[in-house]
Amino acid sequence: MENKKRPKVYVTRELPIDTLNAIRDRCDVDMNTNYKSMLKDELIEKLKNYDALLVVGTRIDEEICAAIKDKCKIIANYGVGYDNIEVEAATKHGIYVTNNPDRVTDATADLAWTLLLSTARRIIECDRYVRSGEKSWGPNLLIGSQVSGKTLGIIGAGRIGTAVGKRAKGFDMKIIYTSTKPNKEFENLTGGIFMDKEQLLKEADFISIHTPLLPSTFHLLGENEFKLMKKTAIVINASRGKVVDEKALVAALLNKDIAGAGLDVFEKEPYLQEGLDELNNVVLTPHIGTSTIDTRFSMAEGCALNIFAALEGKTPPNCVNPEVSIN
């Protein structure tokens, strides 16, 4: 690659520049440093000139894939979820799509637990109370929910769900889970008990969602599901916003069908369902599940390995459409 013109890589949203050093050593890198997304026409015109895309939350559809097919060899998605990319379109036009399945697990599991504990113990309310200068402290103040010894229901028994379950063992929790089928590795690592979704919703004190966004998981939790839960239940979502019917969630919180929620993802992010930000029993974070410096470096490294493989004519290690190599 040293004797050839350096490949060009475009990063669709700003990342810590030092995390891209490995890619910059071998490629010319341009990055969108504007928090505002480009208009689609602008994006298409821009992306035509690059050999590889490092995609951070940007929607890549059929029209874009068709426009970039003559030069672009790979769409390297920064995160593990790639529902922002029309994979069939990329495959049709001979472009690899990759993700980062192994590099986000611990950071996302830590964030799910941060949301769980913060919601259960009303940490945001407590912080505001202390900062306000209030001095009326006492045993009836800001009473929260016990976590240790309670039942944690995990929806989705993949890498992140398993990591969340492993952490729950330290709190002596009973772990129950639901997934498309029983997962023996999950059970061996967490002691979790498999059950159907309805039974889990009825039994769990805390419900943590760790499933990808698929047609089958869209609005997986809605009005009917919230009514099955305990009045004291707390819902945590660090997966995908559209897995939860946000309008139904707000109604359930207002009606006290459930006790609280901790959310890192939203149905129409960065926009919130009306009324959600007015509720004290909700903890909200701006999709920061992977936002640690260690994870940022690791994710960029994963993207680099995928990009380099594609530029060398090889099937990338984390390819979600390997059939491209035989077309």
Which structural class should the secondary elements be placed in?
alpha/beta
The CATH homologous superfamily of the largest domain is called NAD(P)-binding Rossmann-like Domain
User: What CATH architecture of the largest domain do you see?
Assistant: 3-Layer(aba) Sandwich
Give the overall shape, derived from the CA principal axes: globular
Number of strands: 12
- The CATH class of the largest domain is identified as Alpha Beta
Alpha-carbon Rg, integer: 22 Å
Number of helices: 12
Distance between the termini: 24 Å
What is the beta-strand fraction? 5-15%
Which oligomerization state do the chains in this entry correspond to? single chain
Strand arrangement within the widest β-sheet reads 8-7-6-9-10-11-12
**Sheet with most strands:** 7 strands, parallel
InterPro entries: D-2-hydroxyacid_DH, D-isomer_2_OHA_DH_cat_dom, D-isomer_DH_CS, D-isomer_DH_CS1, D-isomer_DH_NAD-bd, NAD(P)-bd_dom_sf
Domain D-isomer specific 2-hydroxyacid dehydrogenase NAD-binding: 114-289
Domain D-isomer specific 2-hydroxyacid dehydrogenase catalytic: 11-321
GO molecular function: NAD binding; oxidoreductase activity, acting on the CH-OH group of donors, NAD or NADP as acceptor
Observed structural traits:
327 residues, alpha/beta, Rossmann fold, 2 domains, five-stranded parallel β-sheet, 12 strands, 34% helix, D-2-hydroxyacid_DH
